[in-house]
Design a protein that fits this description.
homodimer; about 350 residues; 434 Repressor (Amino-terminal Domain); Rossmann fold; 3 domains; six-stranded parallel beta sheet; four-stranded parallel beta sheet; elongated; DNA-binding
Chain lengths: ~350, ~350
DNA sequence: GTGAAAGCGCTAACAG
DNA sequence: CTGTTAGCGCTTTCAC
């Protein structure tokens, strides 16, 4: 570690000044040819690597981007990460992953990392900005919000249209002939959950199907939440013939619970999810769901952020990417009898 | 960004030298009380944050650890990450996540990040060290290997006993009364796959069950690989009554294929997986599998690494953590007929 | 085109 | 206990 070659060592070997070496290595194009290649060669031979701390200190940049997710255990975010990383690498940036666990303190820490030079920019997939940061008015020229909308901040956001996607999901059930369609929501205060609920309500009312309050079951995006919601729905006097779950994990819970109650999916109960996570296509039955363009969300977020860092004007304040319905085995027309 | 308060600003406000401020803020305990609190207060008031690049440049440390995984899309690694992150944060380190995609070039890049001061240490979950790095003899005092064994390097490794875990899985099937037990392997050249295969072979031979070569189907850890292997096994003249898959994803593939062939799991075919990934307990049927102590692997890897970075001697070259079999719905005694 | 020199913000000797 | 000073390794004026 301590005997790492530094720019000075190269300079000594080649017989030039360290300034010249720096110029040669950063590709400023100001170094003449015989010197240039000698320096490059020496750098390789000595296995030279610039010290990032020194460079960053000098240039006031870190060349890295921070992506903060709510729960790193959720594989869903990883696709976004991959898309973002790809773009970043191409631009010479590296990407760090932060895990907020939904804790405002930790989110604040990540904002601090921005301030203390750890990262040049940040992509938030947390659905919130800590109150403390909000109040103190954070710099808004190096932050992009992705996937999980954050209200009342004027930062570029790369989102999907949750409401219309939810409508699509419900319309699929309606077009199969279902009328008794229930919805298991996400956690209520969250905007994303509200939008998906809105989509459900709108699709129902557009189709002229009266909405039964009992058919709107509160969930929490977890497997267990799906199971419990399903239990209540199935025990209703008039149980639904189809359920639209606000995410895939709950959909799995619903299917499990249906199974436990000896209901066949899809013949007795159709289930639609939302997200198309890993294994949604592998489940038995495979899940009809809304596929989000995670990779693209990651890519767009990163290109937007990089453009901001370059000082370019970013055209749109919020971009909406399109989703698509993936029809698989968990949905079918209702059987005649109620 | 440019008007960020620096240590000098605090010094000016309080009326001391910047050295004193530094001492007060790093908690060296060498600053007297009236000054100390004044400095702290000023730091908070100005929202001071030390510039990491400057600090790291000076101290020759980065206070961050790099965890490199083979595929960030695999949720399995995330638990390890969580465990490691927890320990690291407690020690004041932050954790970066690297994604090698199994590409030696990218792995080399991560080794470079170590050299250029981006990180102080690294935890490898990649199952390999790039040949180039191997040859040039990398510094071995800041690298720990976790979960995926790497051969022929003398670095501390935190592993699980794949062979004995595999034996446990197969013994479970044997104890249920199965004799026609097949194994779908992981990718052959990988040590982990080989060890799981060894465990299978040994359990069989320990039980005095002759091993049929047709029952050893090559897989690749993917869903599709599991499906294909299962197809071949099921079409055998004497199909197995139970299959031990070298990972959960393939186990899901096997169950899907069985389903397609109208075989019921577990009554017609028992299936055991390995890993206990997210949703293994939610699958229909839920999967009997080997649960790896991911969180603990992460924790142990990190504590070991931190101890190495502190210059302490690390006792064991390789640590083996224990796994346990989780019996769920996908296994049952064989039905009598064949 | 190249060298000399300054300085990014911080910490660690060394005095006092 | 506190201030002065030097310097981490690099980039970037400013001269020549």
């Amino acid at each position: 570690m301590s005997n790492r070659p530094k720019i000075k060592d190269i300079a000594a070997t080649v017989g030039v000044s360290s300034a010249t070496v720096s110029r040669a290595l950063t590709g400023s194009g100001l170094v003449a040819e015989p010197t240039l290649s000698k320096i490059r060669e020496a750098a390789i031979r000595l296995r030279y690597r610039p010290n990032v701390n020194a460079r960053n200190l000098r240039t006031q940049k870190s060349m890295s981007i921070l992506i903060v997710v709510r729960d790193i255990g959720n594989p869903f975010y990883l696709e976004v990460f991959k898309g973002a990383e790809h773009m970043a690498r191409a631009a010479g940036y590296s990407v760090l992953m932060g895990n907020s666990e939904g804790d405002p303190d930790r989110e604040t820490e990540y904002f601090d990392m921005l301030r203390d030079g750890h990262a040049d920019g940040m992509i938030l997939l947390t659905g919130q900005v800590p109150q403390q940061i909000r109040e103190s008015g954070f710099s808004d020229d190096n932050v992009v919000v992705a996937l999980e909308m954050i209200e009342e901040v004027r930062i570029p956001q790369i989102l999907i249209d949750n409401k219309s996607a939810a409508k699509t999901a419900v319309n699929h059930l309606i077009s199969l002939g279902h009328k008794n369609i229930a919805h298991v929501t996400g956690p209520i205060p969250e905007k994303m959950s509200a939008l998906r609920l809105d989509g459900y309500l709108q699709a129902m009312s557009d189709a002229g199907i009266p909405i039964c309050q009992d058919y709107i079951a509160p969930g929490d995006f977890t497997l267990r939440g799906g199971e419990e919601a399903a239990r209540k729905l199935i025990e209703l006097p008039t149980p639904p013939s189809a359920i639209f779950a606000a995410n895939d994990e709950m959909a799995f819970g619903i299917i499990r619970e249906a199974h436990r109650k000896k209901l066949n999916v899809p013949s007795d109960l159709s289930v639609v999810g939302f997200d198309d996570i890993f294994l949604s296509g592998a489940f038995l039955p495979s899940l009809t769901t809304i596929c989000q363009p995670c990779l693209e969300v990651g890519q767009r977020s990163m290109t937007t952020l990089l453009r901001m860092l370059d000082g370019l004007e970013v055209s749109n304040e919020t971009t909406t990417l399109s989703t698509n319905l993936v029809v698989r085995e968990s949905t079918a027309p209702p059987t005649k009898q109620i």
